[in-house]
Amino acid sequence: MIITDLLERNARLYGREVALVEVNPSEERDSAVTWREASLIESANGAPYRREMTWSDFDRGANRFANLLLSRGLKKGTKVAILLMNSLEWLPIYFGILKAGCVAVPLNFRYSGDEIKYCLELADCEVLVFGPEFTERMDTVYDAIPLVKTMLFVGKDGPTYTENCGELMTYCSTSAPPVALMEDDYAAIYFSSGTTGFPKAILHRHRALLSSCQTEQNHHNQTRDDVFLCIPPLYHTGAKMHWFGSLLSGSKAVLLRGVKPEWILRTVTEEKCTIVWLLVPWAQDILDAIESGKLKMEDYLLAQWRLMHIGAQPVPPSLVKRWLKYFPNHKYDTNYGLSESIGPGCVHLGVENVHKVGAIGKAGYLWEVKIIDEQGNEVPDGDIGELAVKGPGVMDCYYKNPEATAEIFKDGWLYTGDMAKKDEDGFIYLVDRKKDVVISGGENIYPVQIEDALRKHEKIKDVAVIGLPDARLGEIVAAIIEIKEGLTCSEEEINEFCKELPRYRRPKKIIFADVPRNPTGKIEKPALRKKYCPDGLVEAQINS
Fold this sequence. Notes:
This protein has 3 domains: 3-229, Rossmann fold, CATH 3.40.50; 232-433, ANL, N-terminal domain (Rossmann fold, 3-Layer(aba) Sandwich); 437-532, 2-Layer Sandwich (GMP Synthetase, Chain A, domain 3). 28% of the residues lie in helices and 26% in strands. It is α/β, with parallel strands linked by helices.
């Protein structure tokens, strides 16, 4: 079985039932349409408040797009890029690419024109599908990407160098294309976060996609009665692979285009959502809004909401404790993963282990894990080492980068680059990214430990800790602190609060500023280093 078989099964068994809903809170609330499989209607600009799509329309739309690609002479293995905001069109296009035997290449919607060009060339893409939000960026690079022979526009009034995707699809068959697919066929290329420069292309086979469905459904027990609220971007493995649990169970999912706390709770109420995956900033915003009185929980119907889970970055234990104070009946879960391991779930806390909040958990369903030293030997419980994982969802390789592939793969194990430790019960705790460790005066300092401590301060909304160069110590600890709206805080308050930390861990530099996070919730530490130490050589100012 491959993942497209699941879509065809759902269309056959539950064809008239709603598969996907798109909610656009910024649009007029009295507008609503049903998605028609005959064409791709415009998304984003001018989209109605709510659109929905049945499993039958989902499958028929995927077939139409697959047949459109085949009509252009595309062969098995051809790379097709997707540059779209979350919308009803996103997943039918993705599955249409897979059904045609092509390789889906989702692109980050934050990429600049140069980054789009770089990724299209790196992945050898011959087709690009994009929406109106990206026209200006594409205008700057479209004629400098000769390998991309076809550009398909999702929406109305596309640029002259594009063809209208919806119009072309109206002439294509709704029948499944005659393409035989195998588990070992290449399926998708995802891109790394690019923490060391431009991103790397991560190549996955069909078997990895299917394994992620099985892992996700095993962890969160989705049934056909569940409704999954998906807010993060679908280009990322995290969002899509959590939705795979809905695909496997044949249950409805809701794509919410917006992250305001009131939009999230209103959508949970109106769509009767039972499972919500949040990123740390969004969960913090909801709690802040409740505690400030901006949100009144009695205004919403939330009793059916059974599970809130978080992933994509370390989760402060204090955040989960605050959450359970206001949502005591929620099951809570943390999932760890990376794009190289087909997204979330290779390490998994489990809803039954809320007493271990702070840990990322144990090996996920179908996965193995270990923590190792520099020589590849497992370290004793309590010692810090690098987390390594093995399972059916590991990538095939970094596409066209054998050197980087060799660095991350050793004896069948995927080296994650994350430093971790294991307690006496076998639960794994993230310590930090290997590349983010601060070495000050010969001491290894792990920023996550300091960040977790600082987030307990009642005035702090978010915090990022980085190392800045110092002539005497090599590096010093700098804390970039974002204060909650409407509050003020001084360096003296922070320094006093930090007296609970060992002296060598206390920040030597305090910077009050916003903490930037990428669309998947990870702190953009390279951007912070560049901003506060652009040359990488200047001596940092030390506060007493």
